[in-house]
């Protein structure tokens, strides 16, 4: 029996937009998609603002009953205590975050996050009812040295050590060599890695959970290339970086089915 996975388009704002800009953006995004008759059951939409924006986004979404989901860009592996500058999953849960990005390549490279740290953060997310958007991906050097999918597969295994996948998981494959480069992976490359990742999920969590888990592609995603990725059987959406800050471009990516006939 074929499993239907709801496409998921996620916008990672990174360190952009203050809380006032966030309010304006989310409001306009919801209006844009509503005016275009977007069916949110057809493609789920989520934004990932900086921590300082989350309370404002929560208030707006709740007050206007907007169908846009939101999450945080990171969380601490710890729940509370003497951890200056860290943000607990408990706080994110109180802000009604649905998701949290974990293990983004920028965290792995700039903040030296290991697979063990990423694993602890996935466990922390589940502890507070948050769905991890778990990022895996290889550099150009990794690709040349180990071949396609080897590094993302190893990262996925490390991140899910002892994890109950049934508590919720989204996997995002982000080839580091494609992020912000303007040069996306080909749909075939994305599919090859996504299929390998789904195979690992089947080993770890069983065929049913693997079949129902969404796997996203991220790395220079645009309205012009999203449909080609979405046609691949194991690619279920996109983690969008720079283009998620452009209201019209992001709205167009969300509406990939309508505007490009995917």
Question: What does this entry look like structurally?
Answer:
One of its GO terms (biological process) is glycerol catabolic process. Keywords: Cytoplasm, Gluconeogenesis, Glycolysis, Isomerase. It is found in: Cytoplasm. This protein has about 260 residues and is of the alpha/beta class. The protein has a single domain, classed as Alpha-Beta Barrel (TIM Barrel). The protein is about 45% helix and about 15% strand. It contains twelve helices and eight strands. The chain has an eight-stranded parallel barrel with strand order 1-2-3-4-5-6-7-8, surrounded by five helices. α1 runs parallel beside α2, α1 packs across α11 and α7 (about 150-160) runs parallel beside α8 (about 185-205). The radius of gyration is 17 Å and the shape is globular. The model has no long low-confidence stretch (mean pLDDT about 95).
Ends apart, CA distance between termini: 22 Å
- The strand count comes to 8
Q: Quickly count the domains.
A: 1
Largest sheet geometry: 8 strands, parallel, barrel
**Fourth-level CATH superfamily:** Aldolase class I
Class inferred from helices and paired strands? alpha/beta
Strand content: 5-15%
Number of helices: 12
Low-confidence stretches: none
Q: How do the strands line up in the largest sheet?
A: 1-2-3-4-5-6-7-8
- Mean pLDDT figure: 94
In CATH, what is the class? Answer: Alpha Beta
- CATH fold assignment: TIM Barrel
Identify the overall geometry.
globular
Please give the share of residues in helix: 40-55%
Element order: H for helix, E for strand? EHEHEHEHHEHHEHHEHEHH
Radius of gyration, in Å, reads 17 Å
By CATH, the architecture is named Alpha-Beta Barrel
Binding site for substrate: 12-14, 180, 220, 241-242
Keywords: Cytoplasm, Gluconeogenesis, Glycolysis, Isomerase
Function: Involved in the gluconeogenesis. Catalyzes stereospecifically the conversion of dihydroxyacetone phosphate (DHAP) to D-glyceraldehyde-3-phosphate (G3P).
Pathway: Carbohydrate biosynthesis; gluconeogenesis; Carbohydrate degradation; glycolysis; D-glyceraldehyde 3-phosphate from glycerone phosphate: step 1/1
């Amino acid at each position: 029996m074929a499993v239907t996975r709801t496409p998921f388009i996620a916008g990672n704002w990174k360190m952009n937009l203050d809380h006032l800009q966030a309010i304006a953006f989310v409001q306009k995004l919801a209006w844009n998609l509503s005016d275009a008759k977007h069916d949110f059951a057809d493609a789920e939409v989520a934004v990932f603002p900086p921590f300082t924006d989350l309370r404002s986004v929560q208030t707006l979404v709740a007050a206007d009953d907007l169908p846009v989901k939101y999450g945080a860009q990171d969380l601490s592996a710890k729940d509370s205590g003497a951890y200056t500058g860290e943000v607990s999953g408990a706080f994110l849960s109180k802000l009604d975050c649905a998701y949290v990005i974990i293990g983004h390549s920028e965290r792995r490279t700039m903040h030296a996050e290991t697979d063990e740290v990423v694993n602890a953060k996935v466990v922390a997310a589940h502890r507070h009812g948050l769905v991890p958007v778990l990022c895996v991906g290889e550099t150009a050097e990794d690709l040349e040295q180990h071949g396609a999918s080897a590094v993302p597969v190893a990262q996925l295994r490390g991140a899910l050590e002892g994890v109950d996948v049934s508590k919720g998981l989204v996997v995002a494959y982000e080839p580091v060599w494609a992020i912000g480069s303007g040069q996306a992976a080909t749909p075939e490359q994305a599919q090859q890695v996504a299929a390998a990742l789904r195979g690992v999920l089947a080993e770890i969590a069983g065929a049913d959970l693997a079949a129902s888990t969404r796997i996203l592609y991220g790395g220079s995603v645009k309205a012009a290339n999203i449909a080609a990725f979405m046609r691949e059987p194991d690619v279920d959406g996109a983690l969008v970086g720079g283009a998620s800050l452009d209201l019209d471009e992001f709205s167009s990516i969300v509406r990939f089915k309508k505007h490009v006939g995917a």
